[in-house]
């Protein structure tokens, strides 16, 4: 007997009741059937509001505030660097204690989201564009063909999954990730509507106006037949030099294809960016050994995109517009 951990819930409730009645600890212990020290510890713990026993924390509130300032000064430092700075500030704590205190504050180590940097003029134009499109319905957005290019690498760098391992397993082949100094990559052009995705085009050279117009001729036009049949549609692309070239604008006019005006540096407003992310996540378990295998993997994964996924992404456009307005033209979470 004696340890409060051995007290049952009923015993604790009885102790509390008898204490309120003014009984002494000796009498309470006799009635409850435990030692007087157990009664004393339970009463003292309740009086102090303590829920558990254990060693007192080695860091003060002041130390914690200092740690939070260090973390917020540069959120990209690792635990070792933060621990070193905290120690220099006069705090005596281990690296694991530093990590625990950061977790207690709500900090978690995550892969950072990527958002475009926007200057004041770009934010103003994005805001004006969003306000102009705020009344567009999902049905109107379904008439837009969204397009974009994306780069796929055999090695995805730090964006890939992490590994769990024990001490001494660092060189275990099952714990290693293959890497090359200059990973092979391919550039892909693709398009989507709310109904489905269009054919992919693997770009062999740097995209200039002439190359882009060939892509439009041989891949975009067939995609319009596939996605819209004979119905009207609006084509979307960003303001990349090849897209905004005078000869490219002439090409669209000659083919009678209307263009959706688009603000600069705004990938967060384009749902196809999210589609590229979906494709890359689905490819995480694939291990292509060369560019040709990489292309085959991309094609196979692209073919698995469902109409429901496309529809959900295009249906998000009104929310993207609202988010851009709320952010006053700044980059959004999308």
Automatic annotation (TrEMBL):
The GO biological-process annotations, alphabetized, read as: DNA integration; DNA transposition
Entries under Pfam families matching the protein = DDE_3, HTH_Tnp_Tc3_2
Domain Tc1-like transposase DDE intervals: 144-295
A single Gene Ontology molecular function, please?
A: DNA binding
Domain Transposase Tc1-like residues, every copy:
64-132
Task: From the UniProt annotation, give the residues forming the signal peptide.
Answer: none
| The protein's name | Transposase
């Amino acid at each position: 007997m004696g340890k409060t951990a051995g007290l049952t819930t009923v015993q604790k409730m009885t102790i509390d009741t008898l204490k309120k009645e003014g009984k002494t600890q000796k009498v309470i212990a006799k009635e409850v059937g435990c030692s007087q020290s157990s009664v004393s510890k339970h009463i003292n713990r309740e009086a102090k509001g303590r829920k558990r026993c254990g060693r007192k924390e080695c860091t003060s509130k002041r130390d914690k505030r200092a740690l939070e300032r260090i973390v917020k000064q540069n959120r990209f430092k690792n635990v070792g660097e933060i621990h070193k700075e905290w120690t220099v500030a006069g705090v005596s704590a281990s690296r694991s204690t530093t990590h625990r205190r950061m977790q207690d504050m709500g900090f978690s180590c995550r892969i950072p989201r990527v958002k475009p940097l926007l200057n004041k003029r770009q934010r103003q134009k994005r805001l004006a564009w969003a306000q102009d499109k705020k009344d567009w319905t999902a049905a109107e957005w379904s008439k837009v063909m969204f397009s974009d290019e994306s780069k796929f690498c055999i090695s995805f760098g730090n964006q890939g999954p992490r590994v769990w391992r024990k001490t001494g397993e660092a060189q275990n082949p099952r714990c290693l990730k293959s890497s090359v100094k200059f990973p092979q990559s391919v550039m892909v052009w693709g398009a989507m509507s709310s109904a489905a995705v269009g054919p992919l085009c693997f770009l062999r050279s740097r995209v200039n106006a002439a190359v882009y117009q060939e892509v439009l001729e041989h891949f975009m036009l067939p995609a319009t037949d596939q996605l819209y049949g004979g119905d009207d549609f609006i084509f979307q692309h960003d303001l990349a030099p090849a897209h905004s070239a005078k000869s490219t604008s002439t090409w669209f006019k000659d083919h009678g294809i209307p263009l959706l005006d688009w603000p600069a540096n705004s990938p967060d407003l384009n749902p196809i960016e999210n589609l590229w992310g979906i494709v890359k996540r689905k490819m995480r378990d694939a291990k292509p050994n060369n560019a040709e295998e990489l292309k085959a993997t991309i094609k196979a994964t692209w073919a698995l995109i469902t109409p429901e996924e496309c529809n959900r992404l295009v249906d998000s456009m009104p929310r993207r517009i609202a988010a851009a307005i709320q952010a006053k033209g700044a980059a959004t979470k999308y």
